[in-house]
Amino acid sequence: MGKKVFKSLLVIMMMYSLCLSQVPRTHAEEGKLIEEEALLISEAKNTSFKPDENVHWYTITPSEESIENFTHFRIKLQSQEEVNFTVYSSLENATNDQTFDQYRAYSYSNETASVDFPISWTGPYYLKVETYVEYAIEEVSEVKETSYTLSYDGVSLPPSNGVIGEECPAELSTKERENGKAILQDLRTIRESLLSGTEDGKKLTSLYYKAAPFISSKMIFNKQIRDEVYSDLVTLKGLFADTAKNGEYSSYTISSKEQEAINSLYTIAHDSVPSPLKKQLEEATKKVNITNLTNSSVSQVISKAGLVRNNSTEPSRFIVKIKDGKSQSSAMAKMKSYGIKSVDSIAHDESVSDNLFVVELNDKGRNFVASSHTTSQQISKLSEVEFVEPVQTYQALSVDSQYPYQWSLKNNDMVSGDIGYEPLKTLLSGKNFDSTVIAVADTGVDHTLADLSDKVLVEKGKNFVDRSDDTMDDNGHGTHVSSIITANSDNHYSIAGVNPFVKILPIKVLDSSGSGDTEQIAYGIMYAADHGAKVLNLSLGGPYSRTIEYAMQYASKKGVTIIAASGNDGMEEVSYPASSKYAIAVGSTNRLDIVSDFSNYGKGLDLVAPGSDIPALLPDGNVTYMSGTSMAAPHVAAVAGLLMSQNPNLKPTDVEKIFTETTKDVSFDEQDNPYPSEDEYYEEDPDYPIEEVVPGYDAVSGWGRLNAYSAVSAVELTAKVNPILNNQSKVTGTAKSGSTIKVMSGTKELGSGTAKSGTFSVSIPIQKADQILEMIISSQAAKTSIKKWVEKAPNKPYVNKLTNQSVSISGSAEPNLKVNVKNSSRKIIASGTVNDEGDFSIKIPKQKEYTTLYVTVLDGYKESSETKVVVADVIAPNAPKANAISDLSTTITGTAEAGSNVTAKVNGRQIAAAKSNTKGQFTLKIKKQKAGSTVSVTAKDAAGNTSKGTNLKVSDKTPPAAPKAKTISDASTAISGTTEANAYVMAKVKGKQIAAIKANTKGQFTLKVKKQKAGSTVILTAKDAAGNTSKGTNLNVSDKTPPAMPKVNAVTSKSKIVKGKTEPYATVTVKSKTKTLGSAKANSKGSFSVKIKSQKVKTVLSVTAKDKGGNISKAMKISVKN
């Protein structure tokens, strides 16, 4: 949205405000045969007109040397008589007398005419030298030969300040004079407030364009006329001031003296123009009876002239959108039944959607307001109608100033204060991308300029202002915008455009005054989408329009990236359509690399780009400074086109993301502003909405200033950085293999790495939320800087205890977030959503004890840290399996749950503990336990779950002690003693049981036995209840029975041996009285022989046998015989 200052102003009453912002091409005679002579640089042509001549033609052909070394040809004409000359950019324009007024000049005595003609066309250029302007001089008394000198040289001029055209009559008469400045200011105000707003005003403007050169020419040569015009203007000064202030509501009354001034100005104008223009001038002033305005109010005159805008709050024209699939004919029939003036489709191209119509209401009559409101409501209620909205007007907005040229590409006054054009050019060197079609919906484009001649798709262009295919620029704004985008570089003509890989699709939606209606702009947008545009530049603005929004959506869905200027009011409000969600809104910066004062800002601004004092081409061939967000937007559009040439698959959202991530921060924090921040006014207002501050975003500069080199490098390197959260210790993304990546926080390097296989991962310390990190990615000639702010991840969820019995996992987190449950491999096994109260419960399969799960919550792409959950074991182990033990056992062996702690207890007292191995085997070392006692064995797992006890009865494997018994003899009939209580006592002799009995509780027993043979052994054993048999107790049956009286053979006095029989082995003793005569031991058969001395007859011998037990038999008394 650019603006320039122009000086053209015309003053006569009812034409005093006809000076406009820009003078278009003028037309005169057409079709005349041209015979030209070539002029050479720096060689003067001295010649004269023959009596029958009044026109000479010349050509200037720019050489390569001239194109390379100069920006303009300075053409000079010297003569004594009045001679004028005109310069044309081509034969066609010369034939049609089509050029710009600043390329017409007049030479007369002591006044050399000079024109600086830009070298902006390929040539040859045509010069027409003539002695008079046809029709302007109506009578010539005599014809005399007129001589002149014509020459040209090359000059290099900086870009101009935007002045186009000859000085208009008002300026010629007022400049350098008292009151002149005030008069001109009032005239400009009247021009902008009255003439530009009505059709009749525009017609008067057009008439002025034709008349101005003739009026100005006459004033240049006649000082008296200049003085008269000035005097008349001073007379009308009060009228001008009041009209400038009050416009169509001015109640100022025209006096008779002012009427005289008006008549004088009208006469001067009427006498100055040729006959065809006289008729038009007379027709234009007929409505108001210009010679009879005394005592009339200005408002009356303005009304008669048709300069009053329709100020009704209800417009007379509406745009009606028919729903897709609904009958248009039915809707049109119904609309016509409401008595409207006309229903007209605004689609005049088969390729453009035709479901939009302009409905014009009959605006005559006193009840128009009510009728307009009622009719629009009726139409909106039709079932076929989607919406109804009034037709509105949009402007190419602008501001002006001057600075060194093309600083936006290379800023010598501010390091890194440009878009990075030079490194971008190096990066693009040798590349041959396909051209991207960029549509410029504006005032048209002049494709005849050398720098644009092969850049404009002339045949595809469309003019929605007059519904034609002629998209030539009659304002200059669109050409300026287009040359910023893609003026050919390195060809020595004018300037270098940002993007060499572009074809401009010219779409004229704004007229010669820079204005356009809703339907023109909407269909221009849709036309661009339907005719191959990938980028659309909208350097215009106005009120919100649902129709334009529909067109924006239409284009966006077709993949068109829309770039729009934010506006030039210096207000905290992005203008429309830049504020649309389908547009990338662009503000302006100046050469100090700060946001321009005029640039609109606020919510919806995406980025800023150079827009102050941007030099670019105008249709007149001059490189001219213009300022505004209109100049900023094409910088961005150009780079958007370049990104699309690099990667045609990019979507508008991709392009926007690349821009916002690669911009340079140009935010400026004012420290010395004496005025309080606007925000302070709302501190005490609880109802005032407080917008969330997004790190890296500034309401004045958006995401930052365009960095074309960084943006293009990002695509060249396929560089993308994944979101960075405040719980991450890595920065990840994609980049061309081999690219180096540095992660910076301000000037501090957090980490670096290299891309491998197209991806990278750089370790960094975990960063706090809301910090801005910069990823510098580079490889060869490409280098991009991608900004990312550290986003706050959701708080990690709280998870309730999860057991191996659980069939769901539950917990709490921030409401309405997604919950993911992952296994140990981080594979999602279940998902759910947190409810409004912040709780969640998600079904899952039962998990094995000690299984590890991870639970996270997601807010879009932002994932929380993991909550680690280990499945708790709440299932007690099975009771251990243990081998039987006895009172002899010193270990307990068995199996239990692997890794469990096995414990043995007796009467609640732990006697041993051990851990089972991975196979569940265990061995408990114990002391020998009392037989019959119970050992309880349990297993306790790692979770503390204890199994049921396994009770081990201590079996009795210890035999009773050998019974203790009293000695027995062969006379005994009982064996008594003690043994283990209740033991079963048995007596055996030679393995044969001879008796058995159970000991009492004190262990006492008595066995009844038969008398046993002396010397025999009775073996006693005790057998306990468990069947354990003690060792035997051997009881030797003692001999307590004396042997029988020995049988003794007869003994004589001669016997020296006493023989006989007795108990075997008994010791036989023979006594005589007390005297032992002899003894001997019986043999095994009991026979014995005892040697004695011969005894006297009748000696009584006493023979006894003594057994081994010492028992002595009764004595056998025997008398010795003869």
Automatic annotation (TrEMBL):
<feature type="domain" description="Bacterial Ig">
    <location>
        <begin position="793"/>
        <end position="872"/>
    </location>
</feature>
<comment type="similarity">
    <text>Belongs to the peptidase S8 family.</text>
</comment>
<keyword id="KW-0720">Serine protease</keyword>
<dbReference type="InterPro" id="IPR000209">
    <property type="entry name" value="Peptidase_S8/S53_dom"/>
</dbReference>
<dbReference type="Pfam" id="PF17936">
    <property type="entry name" value="Big_6"/>
</dbReference>
<keyword id="KW-0964">Secreted</keyword>
<dbReference type="GO" id="GO:0005576">
    <property type="term" value="C:extracellular region"/>
</dbReference>
<feature type="compositionally biased region" description="Polar residues">
    <location>
        <begin position="944"/>
        <end position="953"/>
    </location>
</feature>
<feature type="active site" description="Charge relay system">
    <location>
        <position position="477"/>
    </location>
</feature>
<keyword id="KW-0378">Hydrolase</keyword>
<feature type="domain" description="Bacterial Ig">
    <location>
        <begin position="1043"/>
        <end position="1121"/>
    </location>
</feature>
<dbReference type="InterPro" id="IPR034084">
    <property type="entry name" value="Thermitase-like_dom"/>
</dbReference>
<dbReference type="InterPro" id="IPR013783">
    <property type="entry name" value="Ig-like_fold"/>
</dbReference>
<dbReference type="InterPro" id="IPR041498">
    <property type="entry name" value="Big_6"/>
</dbReference>
<feature type="active site" description="Charge relay system">
    <location>
        <position position="630"/>
    </location>
</feature>
<feature type="domain" description="Bacterial Ig">
    <location>
        <begin position="876"/>
        <end position="956"/>
    </location>
</feature>
<feature type="region of interest" description="Disordered">
    <location>
        <begin position="944"/>
        <end position="965"/>
    </location>
</feature>
<dbReference type="InterPro" id="IPR050131">
    <property type="entry name" value="Peptidase_S8_subtilisin-like"/>
</dbReference>
<dbReference type="Pfam" id="PF00082">
    <property type="entry name" value="Peptidase_S8"/>
</dbReference>
<dbReference type="GO" id="GO:0006508">
    <property type="term" value="P:proteolysis"/>
</dbReference>
<dbReference type="GO" id="GO:0004252">
    <property type="term" value="F:serine-type endopeptidase activity"/>
</dbReference>
<feature type="domain" description="Peptidase S8/S53">
    <location>
        <begin position="435"/>
        <end position="671"/>
    </location>
</feature>
<feature type="domain" description="Bacterial Ig">
    <location>
        <begin position="960"/>
        <end position="1039"/>
    </location>
</feature>
<dbReference type="InterPro" id="IPR036852">
    <property type="entry name" value="Peptidase_S8/S53_dom_sf"/>
</dbReference>
<keyword id="KW-0645">Protease</keyword>
<protein>
    <submittedName>
        <fullName>S8 family serine peptidase</fullName>
    </submittedName>
</protein>
<dbReference type="InterPro" id="IPR015500">
    <property type="entry name" value="Peptidase_S8_subtilisin-rel"/>
</dbReference>
<feature type="domain" description="Bacterial Ig">
    <location>
        <begin position="721"/>
        <end position="787"/>
    </location>
</feature>
<feature type="active site" description="Charge relay system">
    <location>
        <position position="442"/>
    </location>
</feature>
<dbReference type="InterPro" id="IPR023828">
    <property type="entry name" value="Peptidase_S8_Ser-AS"/>
</dbReference>
<dbReference type="InterPro" id="IPR022398">
    <property type="entry name" value="Peptidase_S8_His-AS"/>
</dbReference>
<keyword id="KW-0106">Calcium</keyword>
